[in-house]
Amino acid sequence: MPVKIPNTLPAAEMLTRENIFVMSNERAEHQDIRPLRVGIINLMPTKETTETQILRLLSNSPLQVDVFFIRTGTYLGKNTKKSHLDEFYITIDEVIASGARFDALIVTGAPVEKLAFEDVKYWDELTRIMDWADKNVYSTMFICWAALAGLKWHYGIEKRMLEDKCVGVFEHRVTDVHHPLVRGFDENFLAPHSRYGTVLKEDIVKQEDLVILAESEEAGLHLIVSRDGRRVYVTGHGEYDRDTLKKEYERDIAQGITDSFPKHYFPHDDPKSEPALRWRSHASLLYANWLNYLVYQNTPYNLLNLSCAR
User: Fold this and answer.
1) What number of other Cβ atoms are within 10 A of residue 174's Cβ?
2) Is-catalytic flag, 237?
3) Is 144 in the active site?
4) Whose C-alpha in 14, 22, 79, 88 is 20 to 30 A from the C-alpha of 164?
């Protein structure tokens, strides 16, 4: 949460230059507080696991968050019980038809990277809600495949397929230390990746609306954000548990996939060793910064007054 200080305090200017969030007494006195409404479009096959992973990160903020789980209607998947979906989820089209509005929206990754976007069964649904979100959500975070999909739909940036899977825990460099989304980040930090697709830096920098916040020499671009903060693209998986990459590797080996050994993950590259959890703090900070600086500090108290059409 911000430090509340008088506007005229000499430290205010210095703290602002150092990317420390300060709030004037006047602004604080006029703030209204309510729970944030956050929708989560869960495209992962193991939905219950993904629910826990994302909720864990959302809970690391002092802000109260009301969560709404959303699923596709055209594709149910085989790994989550229908009773679970019926009890806890609403469909994308039900959200659109309901007239609901959210402060924030998260769109997870999905194991469909090798398909052309148009060949994904729920592509039409996803594009409908991406267009809907531009008018009814203040800020949307797209994760992994969803980041590639969002960049394609919003900016026409093509997904590039990799020769080998980008998988492991990679070091990243913050490229814009003054952006509030990376406030408090170390200059270098770790994050997991698990994907077959990517976007090229040269395609991103052509878009005046996009800012690159973090990248890796090995894994490429990691954090990309629109200049108004209303679209956040995360190519990695900061929400992953300690053993998620291990389980994915074991699944791939069982299916005869041989290019998915995670780099910089197992101690001494021994898949029998327990991996260290080395990315949780920055993942938590990313979500806390997003909710606070890009959502809470900007979204209206009454969502009926949400005016964010692009």
Assistant:
1) 20
2) yes
3) yes
4) 79
